[in-house]
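Q: Can I see a sequence and its folded structure?
A: Here is a first one.
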Amino acid sequence: MTIVTDRTAKLRHHAALLDDTASRLGMDLQEAAIRGALKFDEISEAVLRCTTCSEPEACAHWLKEEGVAVAAPHYCRNTKLLKRLQGAQ
């Protein structure tokens, strides 16, 4: 049971990092999905990509900074997706 709980916690943590990163970039992932700019599969793939990041602590620190950012950090595994969504706004 612990393995499942650990995996679920990790997925939730990285889903939050992804959502918070999008918010910091001035985007709303839910709104992007509603308007069709983002497919459900893309969200799950992005969360899985995020779980392979070697810098989640740095990301969490970056997310605590004030203001809207222009781009995701250089180590972000979802930069390509986030740039595409920024262009779709």
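Q: Show me another, different protein.
A: A second, unrelated one:
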Amino acid sequence: MSDHNLENKLRKDLGLVSALSLVVGMVLGAGAFMKPPAVLEVAGDYNYALLAWIIGGIFSICGGLTLCELGVMFPKTGGMLVYLEKIYGAKVSHLYGWMITVLFAPSLVGALVGYFSSVFCLLFNIDEAYRMAVSAGVLGFIALINAIGVKEAGYLQTFATICKLIPILLLAIFGLWKGNGQVALLGASGQGIETYAPFAVAILATLFAYDGWAQVASLAGEIRNPSKVLPKAIILGILFLIIVYACINIALFKIFPVQEMVSLKHDASAIASQRMFGEFGGNLVAVGIMVSILGGINGYIMTLSRTIFSMAERGTIIGARFLSTIDEDSRSPVNAIIVLVIFSFLYSILLDADRLSEISMFAIWVFYLLTFIGVIIARKKYADVPRPYKVIGYPIIPIVAISGAAYVIYGMLIYQTVNGIASIFLTLIGLPVYYYYHKKNQNKELSLGEMKKYHNKTQYSIAYASLIIIAGLIAYGYIVSSGLAFKVLMLFNQFIK
């Protein structure tokens, strides 16, 4: 397999701070606020819930450390797409790229955007008819930043990560300090609820909150000194997240009895803040959630657009020439970013985001499992390739990562069978697509990976397009909320009669 011709054109602008911000910023999102009640509900009591968060973090660290070896061996933009291609061949890597392009990336970003717009409208008391306008606005803003360049997107990620820590730390610190002592850890708590769910389901819930750490490896080609930066970013980032999640959970445990916290569900964090700080505290948590989601949207668009770009360079996807183009000014895969943003917006409007997220998570963990196994295969297949970084504690760490991935897949197949089957079906559709383009491009010299000087500044075009979309959707929201469409329809019916 030959190297793709534009890898060396992408700027190596990301250092440890930006990479660490990507790990923390992409993982630390709505899950920090939404998952504690769900984990507690299936765990049954405080001790098992806290243990589930710790084990989920351990699985994530082992997975991250395992993935880092491949990231440093093959520091190419595209991340897992490159690793799977090197180890298993073009078909498996194509299936991964197909799954990312049509399922994981747009559904996950679309879900985050949908949740952001929902919280935004609730906080500012905006009519629900304007949710699409908010979604278009936030996607346009993130697309604009990423079109300018990866360095600017990294600055936004760092800013969002720092800002989101404020409400999270306030909730954790004041909850631990002012809590009324409901919690009793490391002993018989005397509190609990009856649950029939196995412990695997509780760990599964935490892994949704931890997901995002693997995507930073897709930027290895744009990270300075990846052999040192990648392992540090993942280890420090996830260790920090384990501590944050544990503190938030213990703080909530000290405020609520088990039954009350479970019954409050996603509102538990906001109500806890209101009890400590009044109405202002609840609004602060809402702002924190929005900033968290904003960082997640930016991080996923940064990383997943590179995977789409890297797949397009292989010529086995619709619109390969368009998607493999880099803007000469920003050196960013602007076309891939635009396509990802458009489809994410459509997914957020047309499809059920929660279900799509569950399907996409099943799909990504199947490929996580293949990648973890691939580290062991690579030790023999690429024995002579320099490894500036090797997995700590090999082969124990990779085995723990493999076991964790298998545990997640088992849990999803048992408790979300329909979603699992749907995910497999949608992923396997990529095989006939691969065979079609493989046959079509056989014995052809592909001319992909173009450096393009856009006639109009791309970022300005995106900004103008976003403003037009927002204006149109605001008009749509006004028509819907005012009942104008119904009045026009009635007049039209009268005119016909």
